[in-house]
Amino acid sequence: MLTENKKGESQVELPGFADFDLPAEIMHAISDLEYETCTPIQAEIIPKLLEGSDAAGRAQTGTGKTAAFLIAIFTYLLRNPPETNRKPGTPRVLILAPTRELALQIEKEAQTVAKYCEYKLIPIIGGIDYGKQKSSLESDLIDVIVATPGRLLDFKRSRTVDLRKVEILVIDEADRMLDMGFIPDVRNIIYSTPQKGKRQTLLFSATLSPDIMRIADSWMDNPVTVEIDPGQVTVDTIDQIVYITSTADKFVLLYNLIVKNSLKSVIVFGNRRDETESLVRRLRPYGINCALLSGAVSQAKRLRTLEDFRNGKIDILVATDVAGRGIHIDLITHVINFTLPDDPDAYVHRIGRTGRAGELGTSISFACEEDSFAIPAIEEYIGHELKCVRPPEDLLEPPPPVKRNRNNHSRRTDRK
To answer: At a CB cut-off of 8 Å and minimum separation 6, what does 385 contact?
Structure first.
C-alpha cells in the first residue's frame, strides 16, 4: 500500500509494532514513547531478530536501529526466563559500543523500553566511578550490560564479570570500533562469550565494508543482512539546504540564523576543535546560550553538557564529529554544518541528529569555495542533489558591535 510522507512523496506503508505480537510490557513502553509506525530498518530486522537469527545491519544512527534491537532483546528475556542459581556479574545480554556517550545513550533507551520489566541494566564505561561498578558486578544479578571495550576488559581480567552465560551479544557501530582500533579488544571479549551458534549475535554499522563483513563472518552464525540506504535516512524527514557563501560571511550567517529565527535545540558542527572553540567564544558575547562538545572537553563535562542540552538548559551545541557521535536526542530542530565534512558518511551522521522520531528537521550547510568540493561526493552518497542557494540578504546583515567590560570579557550591547 502506498501512502504519502510528510513531504507529500509516495512511499510504501510500513508496519506498526502491534503487527509483531510483542509482549504487553514492551507494547506498553512503546505506547508511552508514542512510537506508531516502524522505521524501515525496524520493519525489516525486528521479525528476523525475534526468530533468533544472527543479523548484520547497515544503518546510520537516527534510523531506529537501537530501539529495534532493544525491543527484540527484552522480548527474548520476557519469553525465556533465566536459569536458576544465577551468579552476580554474569549478564545474559552484552551490548558493546565504541564510546561512552553512545553506551550511556543505549542504556538510557534500554531503561525506557524495559520500563515495565524488572531487569537489572548497568553501564560499564570509563569516566564513571570504578568502585560503584565493581560493587554492582559483585553483588547484583545482572541482565544487561552496556559497555565500552576498555573498562569491560578491566573487569574481565579481574574476573569481576563473567561473560560465559551471554545469550545475546550486540556490537554497535562496528565501523567505529574498527576505526578506533578496538577490534583486538572486542575479539578478546567475544572469545569470552559462548561460541557462535550458541548465542545470538547482532552487528550494526554505518557501512558493511569487506573488513566489517569478514569480522561478521568470523563472529556470527549464518547472519541475515539488512541494509538501509543512506538516502532513506536523509530524504523523508530532513529538509536540507546549502547556503553558498564566503568564508568571511559564515559567522555572520550563523549569528543571524540563530538570532533572527530565535533558534533553540540546534547543533552546529565544525571540522576541528579550534574551529568549534572559536565559534563558542564568538557567540557567547551576543548572549547566545551555547556550549562546546569536543574531544578537548573532559568526559564528565561532556556528559553534563549533553544532559543540559537535552533538558533545554543549553540552546546551541557546538560540536566536532568525534563528540557528535554521542548525541542521540529527539526534537533537535536544526543541524548547521558550519563547515562541510570531507566524508559523506559524516554528513549523513551529522544531519541525522535532527528529523528523529518521525519529526521534521532542518539541515543547513555553509559552503564556501573550499567546502563546495565536498558536495558532489555527498550528493552521490545520499542519492539526490542538494538544494544550493544564496542566503537571503537579511541573513548577511552585520551583527551589532560588542564592547568589552573592564575585565576584558566580551558582552552583548543592549539593543532597543
So the answer is: 379
